[in-house]
Amino acid sequence: MENQLRVKNLYYKVGKREIIKNFSFNCTNGIIALLGNNGVGKSTMMNILAGILRPHSGEVYLNEESLLSRRSYPIEKVGYLPQMFDMYNNVTGYDFLSYVYDVKKLPSQDKKQHLKQIVEEFALQEVIRKKIGKYSGGYKRRLGIAQAVIGYPDLIIVDEPTVGLDPEQRIAFRELLSRISLHSITIISTHIIEDVELYSDKLIIIGNDHDLLFDGTVNELIDIAKPHLLMTVIDKGKLNELRDKVLIIEEKRMADDLIQIKYMLHEETTTVLDNSSQVREVSLENAYIYFQHAQNL
Amino acid sequence: MLKSSLFYTKVSLKNVYFIVAMIVTLLDVFTRLIDTLDVSIFSYTKYFLIPFIFFHIYLLITSSSMMHQEFQVLSFLEKEKGKKMIAIVFANIFVTIGFGLLSVLIMLIFKNPLFSSSTVLMGIGHFLIILMTGSVFAISIGVSMATLIRNELSIVVSLAIYGLIIAITYGNLSDNLILNFLQAFLSDDTFIVFNEIAGVLFTKEYFADKLVVLCLSVLILSMTYFFISSIKRKKYFIIPTLSLVAFSSLIIYGLNHQYDFYQMMDVEKTTFEEYKIGEYKMQLDLRRKLENKTQIQIAFNENSDTLSFLLDSIFTIEHVLVNGQTVEYTFLDNLLVIHDYFTKDSTVNVEIHYRGKVDIKKDIGSNLFYVSPYAINLVGGDFYWYPSPIMEDVAKFDLNVTSDAKLYSNLPISDGHLQGDTRYVSIFAGIYNEQTDGNIRYIYPFTMSVERIKSTISAIIDEYNATDENIEVKNKYYNQVIVGTWPIEGDLLKVEDSTLYFRLD
C-alpha cells in the first residue's frame, strides 16, 4: 500500500526562540532523509512527528488522517526509534517487544507469530530471551528498529540511525531500513551523508533559519549544486593562501605534494582558479556542503 | 493500562532488590516466623517486621528507579507521564498482592490446625491490610520523590524519608490516633506486648489510622500525577481534592480522639450508702459494643436520698428507673449517683440501661478490657462494666447474653444464659484453647500450655505458702482455670467462686 504523509505549516518555538518555522512537505513510501546542521530542529521535527511534542500550529496528515488533532496518537500506525535507544536493563528483549505489541493494541491472537517473525527478520534469536542490559550496541540498535517495525506501521521515524555503530553494523542497519521502507514511509534524521546517499529516496534539508531549505531527491540536489562547483589541482603549499579566496569543499591528496580541490563558484565569488574545470562527479556531500554555504552567502 | 502495568511488573520483579527481599523473607519465615503460626496467627504479622521493612525498601527503590529512568521510546509509546506513573503504582501493587498471597499460603500451610476459621480469616485479613497500607505508602514515597528529583538521588531521599518515619514512630503506641497513624505501615502491636487472646480488634481506630495513611498516599500520588501530567483537566482535581478532604477529616477526627487507657479507680474517698444487692438481672448485648439493661434488687439499711454505683465512664446511660419511675441521676468519674428518696428497710427495683464501646488499653497500648464480635474481656471487680457497690457481697446473678463469640465465665453458662451467686461476674471470649486435666478445665491461649500453667501455679503457691494468703489457690478450691488480662496491679492468680483467674502477662 502506498502511504502518504503531509506535513503542513508546522511551527514550534521554545520561549521566544523559533525552532521550526512554517515547515511543509509531502512524501510517500521510501526513505526520507531529514538533513540539517546541529541545532536546526531535526530532533524537534522528529519528536513532533512522533507525537512526543505538540507544535504551536500546523498539521500532520498520515493517509489523510490527522496525527495531531486526534485525541490519542495512533501509535499502532507509527514506529519510532530515538537516537539514544535504551530500555530497562533487567527486562528481556522479548518482554519489551511484547510490551510494544500490547501497547499498540494489535490483535492478540497474532502476537506470538508476529513477534517470531520480527525476531527472525532482525536476527535477534540469539539474544531475544536475554536481558537488554547484556546486549551489545549492535543488538540494541537492532532491537530498537525491531520494536519500531512491530505491527508494520505506515510511518517509521528513525532518529540518527547509525550513530555509534561500527561500519559493518552500519551497512546491516541501512539494509534493514531499505527493506522496511518498501512498505512504509521511513523518515530518518541524520548528519551522516553517507547514510543518505546510498539509500534515501528523498531529501529534506532544514536550513539554519529553521525553515525548509530543500525538498527533493538526491539527484535533484546534485543537479542544483553541480553548475556551482569547480575543481582544480594545486600545490600543497598554496592551500592556505587559496582558502581566503575561494570556498573549498573537498580536498584530495595526490602525489608530489599536489592536492585536488573542489570549490564553490558563487555569483559573489569572481575568482576562478587556474586550470579549473566543472566537477563531473558531484557527491551528495559536495552538494549538501554547497547548499549549507550557499544559504549563508 | 493493564498491559503497561504488567510490563512494569516484570521490570519490578526482575530486580536484585526483589530477590534480596524474598531471600530475607523466606529465611525469616522458615527460621523464626513459622513457629509463631503455631501459637498465634496475629503474632505472625507482629513479628513480620524485618520482611516488611525489606519489602518496603525494595518497593521504595524499585518504584523510584522505574519512575526516574526516562526512555524516549517509552515517551513515544506512553505519551503521558502520568500514565507511566499509574502503571508503576499498579505494577508494584500487583507485586505486593503476589507477595501477600505467598505469605497467606505460608500462613495457611503452617498455622495451628486448632485455630478457628474466623481467627485464621482475621489473621490473614490483618496481615494483608498491614502489607497493603505499608506498601502503597512506600510506593507513593518512591514515585513522588522520583518525579520531583528525576535522578538516582530520589532513591536515597525515598529511603531517608522512610527511615525517618520508622525512627519517629518507633516505640509504644500513643494515646492519640494522629501520632500513631504513621506507624500503620507496620503492625500496631509491633512494639508492644501483644494480647494473643484478643488478637486484633478491628475497631474504628484500627481502620482510621490505616485510612489516614491510604488517603495520604493517594493525596501524594494524585498531586504527583497532577504535577507531571501535560494535560490539566478539571476532573484531575477531583481525586486530590477528595483525598485531601478525607485526610483532613481523619486528622481532625484523630486530633479529637484518644484511646481509653486504664486508670485505677480511687474509690476509697467515695462514700457509699448502706444497701445490699439481692439480685442482678441483665439483658446483655456483647456483639460490637456493650449494651446492658440491668435490673437490680436493692435493700436499704438506712434512709438515703442518693444511691451510688461504680460504673465506668466510658458508658452512656440511656435511662435509670426506680420502681418503674424515671429518676434523676448524675454520672461522673465512674460514679453513678441516683437521686431519689430511699427509706430504711425498703427494697427497690432499679433499672439502668446503658451502652458503650469497650476498648480500654493498658498503659503500654495492648488490649486490656474489650468487647468485640470475636473477643471479650470483662473482668468484674477490676473493671466496672456493670453497676457495682464499693464492697460487693455475694449476690444472685441472672444474665441473658447475646454474643457472636463463645463465652467463658466464672458463672455457669448455658445457651448464653449465665446464672449463679457470686461477688463479681467476669466474661471472657477470644482465641482460646480448652483442655481438661484431672477435674480442672483449663481455658488458655495457644501461646501457653496446661503444663506451663500448672507449673506457674505451683511456683506461686510455693511463694504463698510462706503466708496465709490465697487459701483458695493453695487448696485448689477451683475446677476451672481461665487465662485473661487485667491490670498489672492485680494478683497474678485469684479465685472467684470455683474459677481460678490466671493473668496473662
For the structure shown, list the relevant keywords:
heterodimer; A: 297 residues; alpha/beta; Rossmann fold; 2 domains; 6-stranded mixed sheet; 4-stranded antiparallel sheet; 9 helices; globular; B: 505 residues; alpha+beta; 22 strands
Helix-strand category of chain B = alpha+beta
The strand count of chain B comes to: 22
Amino- and carboxy-terminal Cα gap of chain A: 43 Å
- Please mark out the parts of chain A with pLDDT under 50 across 5 or more consecutive residues, or reply none: none
Q: What characteristic shape of chain B results from the CA principal axes?
A: elongated
The string of secondary-structure elements of chain A, in order, is EEEHEEEHHHEHEHEEHEHEEEH
SSE layout and pairings?
The complex is a heterodimer of chains A (297) and B (505).
Chain A: E1 4-14, E2 17-28, E3 30-36, H1 42-49, E4 57-62, E5 65-66, E6 78-81, H2 93-103, H3 111-121, H4 137-149, E7 155-159, H5 167-180, E8 185-189, H6 193-199, E9 202-206, E10 212-216, H7 218-225, E11 229-235, H8 239-243, E12 247-253, E13 258-264, E14 277-278, H9 284-296
Parallel strand pairs in A: 3-8, 3-9, 6-7, 7-8
Antiparallel strand pairs in A: 1-2, 1-4, 4-5, 9-10, 11-13, 11-14, 12-13
Helix pairs in contact in A: 4-5, 7-9
Chain B: H1 2-13, H2 16-39, H3 41-46, H4 49-68, H5 72-78, H6 81-110, H7 117-149, H8 153-169, H9 177-181, H10 204-228, H11 238-255, E1 260-261, E2 275-285, E3 290-300, E4 304-310, E5 316-322, E6 325-326, E7 328-332, E8 335-342, E9 347-356, E10 359-361, E11 367-371, E12 376-378, E13 395-402, E14 408-409, E15 413-414, E16 417-422, E17 427-429, E18 432-437, E19 440-445, H12 450-464, H13 471-474, E20 480-484, E21 493-496, E22 499-503
Describe this structure in words.
The complex is a heterodimer of chains A (297) and B (505). By secondary structure, chain A is of the alpha/beta class. Helices cover 30% and strands 29% of the residues of chain A. Chain B has 505 residues and is an alpha+beta fold. Chain B starts with a helix and ends with a strand. Chain B has helices at residues 2-13, 16-39, 41-46, 49-68, 72-78, 81-110, 117-149, 153-169, 177-181, 204-228, 238-255, 450-464, 471-474, and strands at residues 260-261, 275-285, 290-300, 304-310, 316-322, 325-326, 328-332, 335-342, 347-356, 359-361, 367-371, 376-378, 395-402, 408-409, 413-414, 417-422, 427-429, 432-437, 440-445, 480-484, 493-496, 499-503. Chain B is 43% helix and 24% strand. Chain B is elongated, with a radius of gyration of 28 Å. Chain B has an 8-stranded mixed β-sheet with strand order 6-5-9-3-2-13-16-15, with no helix packed on it. A 6-stranded mixed β-sheet of chain B has the order 1-10-11-12-17-14, with no helix packed on it. The longest helix of chain B is centred in the N-terminal third of the chain and has 33 residues, at 117-149. The chains are: A alpha/beta (297), B alpha+beta (505). Chain A binds chain B through residues 50-52, 72-73, 75, 80-88, 90-91, 95, 98-100, 102-104, 131, 144, 147, and chain B through 3-4, 6-7, 10-11, 14-15, 66, 69, 71-79.
